Amino acid sequence: MKYDPSKHHRRSIRLKDYDYSQAGAYFLTIVVRNHECLLGDVVDGEMRVNGFGKMVQKCWDELSVHYSNVELDAFVVMPNHVHGIVVIVDRRGEVTSPLQLHDQPTLGRIIGYFKYQSTKLINELRGTPGAPVWQRNYFEHIIRNDHDFERIREYIAYNPVGWQMDDENPNHT
User: Fold this and answer.
1) CB contact at 8 A, 101 and 63
2) What is the number of alpha carbons within 13 Å of residue 31 lying toward its C-beta?
3) Which of 83, 85, 81 is closest to 40 using CA atoms?
4) In sequence order, what are the beta bridge partners of 72?
5) Which of 78, 27, 13, 29 is nearest to 50 (CA)?
6) How far is residue 80's CA from residue 58's CA, in Å, rounded to a whole number?
7) What mean pLDDT do residues 105-114 have?
């Protein structure tokens, strides 16, 4: 199919003119390509991650090691997506290790790193070098107050319980 700029253009789902490197809390949903249930299963309302899901958890947990300005909050691996809260703190001007990045990375860069690392590990496990794991892009919500923060934490914690009714569940009708 030939490229037609009137039909084939990407629309950003990000908030226009918002600086995604600034300090703040962000609720994220990252979906596996084609909604494939690759990361484990929900059994009796409890998520049971498989080896791939464990790799995803490992990569998530290491984000705050790789980025000194990232703090991690609630997180859940679901069969075909993850939900998490990333908090970017402003550390510009602080003396840090020369091994750490000196600029304030954007949320997109942080998620890109997570997707890259988890894809690499999953593909090593399944012997599929270069195969895509994640859907293009991600969903984010800027957390604006404590009430929003608590509501989202609760949503993440109870996500496995609601899996049967989740729109991401391929068996949901």
Assistant:
1) no
2) 14
3) 81
4) 86
5) 78
6) 16
7) 94
The CA distance from 19 to 21, in Å, is 5
Record the pTM.
Answer: 0.85
- Once rounded to an integer, what is the mean pLDDT over residues 119-144? 95
Q: Around 74, how many Cα atoms within 13 Å sit in the side-chain half-sphere? A: 18
Measure Cα distances from 162 to 47, 48, 77, 108 in Å: 11, 14, 13, 28
Stretch 116-130: mean pLDDT: 96
CA proximity to 62, closest of 113, 24, 19, 22: 113
Among residues 106, 111, 56, 100, the alpha carbon closest in space to that of 78 is found at 56
Decide if 40 contacts 49 (C-beta within 8 A). Answer: yes
pLDDT confidence of residue 101: 47
3-class SS at 105? coil
- Residue 131 identity (one-letter amino acid): A
pLDDT at 82 over 80: yes
